[in-house]
Write a structure and sequence with these properties.
single chain; 188 residues; mainly beta; 4-stranded antiparallel beta sheet
């Protein structure tokens, strides 16, 4: 693990207040992928000063056993604002020790000062190390720019030579999510 390293930065600007921005990043990156947690910071003065906050995406960032953040590593920070100023932060989380992984999301209604506990959009169970057959990766999240109720998430699901593009959406501002479904599949 590379202590005090920050990688994979992502930044979103609040459409209701352009001086409010939220940044996300890997905190303490592992050489074999992911990080011990994901960082988050917000500014309300166009980037002059920043306030960091911890979101419990992993055990290292304070997630409780059995919670949506009960994972060893996190990756792929992605942040998007809805037109009403609600922020959505999506992450890939992993239990490297058992090859389990999930896509999770947290939301903030106050410009990134505080966040809801993460919720799971999709989860893949533990896999045998020899047959690591299901892995979520390469996520993106987009809040609809015209309707604050709608938030869209996409990612890639890799499984034994087959790659699927997966889609899920929220119709209640990120509080709940539809079941994930493949929208395109390639491979054997």
């Amino acid at each position: 693990v590379y202590r005090n390293s920050e990688t994979e930065p992502h930044l979103a600007v609040n459409p209701t207040n352009p001086a409010n921005m939220i940044a996300g990043w890997h905190q303490d990156r592992w050489s074999t992928g992911g990080a011990q947690s994901l960082g988050a910071a917000s500014t309300f003065n166009g980037g002059v000063t920043w306030e960091q906050v911890v979101i419990p995406f992993t055990r290292c960032s304070g997630a409780a056993p059995g919670s949506a953040g009960d994972y060893e590593r996190a990756s792929d920070p992605w942040i998007s604002f809805s037109p009403n100023g609600t922020a959505h932060y999506m992450a890939l989380v992993e239990k490297e020790s058992v090859n389990a992984n999930a896509m999770v999301v947290a939301r903030s209604t106050n410009g990134g000062r505080t966040w809801s506990p993460p919720i799971v959009i999709a989860r893949n169970p533990a896999q045998d190390r020899v047959h690591r057959s299901l892995f979520n990766d390469k996520n993106t999240l987009t809040a609809d720019p015209f309707d604050s109720r709608l938030v869209y998430a996409t990612w890639t699901l890799f499984r034994n030579g087959i790659t699927s593009l997966v889609f899920a959406r929220s119709t209640d501002g990120g509080r709940t999510w539809s079941p994930a479904r493949p929208i395109a599949t390639m491979g054997n």
